[in-house]
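Protein modeling request. Please complete all fields; requests missing the sequence field cannot be processed.
Requester role: graduate student
Desired output: 3D structure, token encoding
Chains: 1
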Amino acid sequence: MTKLFHKDKPLIGLDISSTDMKIMSIDLARNSVTGYGIIDLDPLQIKKSLDEENNYLLDNLKSLLENKLVGSLISDQVVIGIPTARTFSRTFNVPVSAEGTLKEAVALEVGQYIPLPLSLLYVDYEVIERNDSTLTVVMSAVPQKLVDNTLAAVENVGLTATMVEPAINAVARVLHATEEGHLPTVIVDIGAANTDIGILDGSVRITGGLATGGNTFTLDIAKKLNVTLENAHQLKVLNGLSPGPKQAKIGTALRPALRNIITETRKVIRYYNERLASDKRLEQVLIVGSGSNVPGIGEFFTNELVMPARAANPWQEFDWGELPQPAKQFRSRYIGVAGLANVPKGAMWL
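Delivered output (350 residues):
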């Protein structure tokens, strides 16, 4: 696929996940949000719309722009974030002597580690480090049908797609700018239905994930304590893992799902340490996303991974101007789309 990038207009972000779709426009000269919006999606319907051909994605994109937008958009040039779980990102090393045959090396990596044939994928790669003997290459791949359907919907509403990337790359961009993300960092992005995990070391080196998220926490609390989903959500965000009279039962309910996330995080860390780290050491764990609003979650990850961990809060960097701000408990949902609207000039993917 031809790489696309337009430098003559500001960029807006459009983040499509398995549970919602968000849009944001930022005046980078003033670091001020000019417009934003969100619309919830049905996970089964959006997956079908991305994989096949129906109007669900298009209809909801129209509704987002016509009915859910707060403020205004400063451009028709859009950077699209797609579900990280639907993409494949890997970093690998090859000898300098293989630079002339990098395309073949990438195809070999795709064949070994990606469960889709190369003919059904869009693939992009970049050399991110080099020394006298070794090249470090980051490779990303995504199903062609998913990209084609997304671009068709975006163009139908009069927007021009300039870039497509995995959503976790956009999250990493915000964290790099606001949360000491220049350090080698483990990102744990806990969404409503899925958790994305990545290693940020200059760029996102590797990603992983699992179908566990904030909704899982709520359902587990409701089942364990025999309360309504609404009450379970309140217990999750007000009590969580913090000490208190209800901590034992809530903690017992939360720990199985949290430990599943920990297990997947350890796999990603192990890959980085064994294949990519050389003499580098991971310095921190940053937990983001709508499922990160569990009191005590930072301490839990610190103890389990024996590494400093905290829930990240990058919002001090954004000026919402005169716009009504999202409620505090919902702001974490906008981290990824803020990153999409913050793409530096010259960045490209697909």
